Amino acid sequence: MATLTDRQPDRFQAGFLSEYSLRVNFHAFNRFIDLAPVPADAQPVLQVEEQNSDYESGVASIGKEQWRIRTARIKATKPGAFVAVWKRGEGGSTRPFTVDESMSGLLVFVEEKERFGVFQFTAAHLSSLGYVSSDLHPGKRGFRVYPAWCTDLNPQASRTQRAQADAFSELPSSNESRTLTKNGRALQQRP
């Protein structure tokens, strides 16, 4: 695994970098770090995961927590965005992550036109939604996320959006104020 340190996508820690690692710029993750109210002493470190590369996949260390990260993909034909979250198992087949492999959780970034947000799913929330495999659920290799700005959803998508709502925060565009919102309400920034 390659390591990307610093907040700049072109600065790499010494080590072995694959061709894929050199192409990934983690645009959404870097935008999140620039806009989100993270502690001043946080030094995000990114380990590139070459699997799920279409989704800017990696592992970020923010403070003392490790989070899997993905950038969801928007399709014009369906509301919401899709994200793949799997790992290659023995024999080369794909499988969902287990609850034990969830780390602190999963950050899913969504960009649509001028809007930008992040789903911060904790390991417990991923398990309760059935997105990771556990004794209760087989898990999923991918799923749709529905930011608060998605409207006119069918009943199933509306239920999913409500179940995901506590994890979602919309971030301001770079030229707006730095007030973070969650479910349409302004949040106080962390010191």
Furnish the topology, listing elements before pairings.
Elements lengths: L2 E3 L13 H5 L3 H9 L9 E4 L9 E5 L2 E7 L1 E2 L6 E4 L1 E3 L5 E3 L8 E8 L2 E8 H7 L12 E4 L9 H10 L3 E4 L9 E2 L2 E2 L5
Parallel strand pairs: 4-9
Antiparallel strand pairs: 1-2, 2-3, 3-4, 5-6, 6-11, 7-8, 9-10, 10-12, 13-14
Structural notes for this entry:
With 191 residues, the protein is α+β, with helices and mostly antiparallel strands. The protein has one domain: 3-Layer(aba) Sandwich (Trna Endonuclease, Chain: A, domain 1). The protein is built from four helices and 14 strands. It has helices at residues 19-23, 27-35, 123-129, 155-164; strands at 3-5, 45-48, 58-62, 65-71, 73-74, 81-84, 86-88, 94-96, 105-112, 115-122, 142-145, 168-171, 181-182, 185-186. The protein has a seven-stranded mixed beta sheet with strand order 1-2-3-4-9-10-12. Strands 5-6-11 form a three-stranded antiparallel beta sheet. The radius of gyration is 16 Å and the shape is globular. Mean pLDDT is 77; it is low at 1-23 and 183-191.
Unreliable parts:
1-23, 183-191
CATH topology: Trna Endonuclease, Chain: A, domain 1
Mean pLDDT across all residues, rounded?
A: 77
Give the full name of the CATH homologous superfamily: MepB-like
CATH architecture: 3-Layer(aba) Sandwich
CATH class: Alpha Beta
Shape, per Cα inertia axes: globular
Distance between the termini: 32 Å
Number of DSSP helices? 4
Please provide the count of β strands: 14
Portion in strands: 25-35%
| Largest sheet descriptor | 7 strands, mixed
- Specify the structural class: alpha+beta
Q: Classify the helix fraction into a percent range.
A: 10-25%
Q: Strand-and-helix sequence, N→C?
A: EHHEEEEEEEEEHEHEEE
Counted up, domains total 1
Strand order of the largest sheet: 1-2-3-4-9-10-12
Radius of gyration: 16 Å
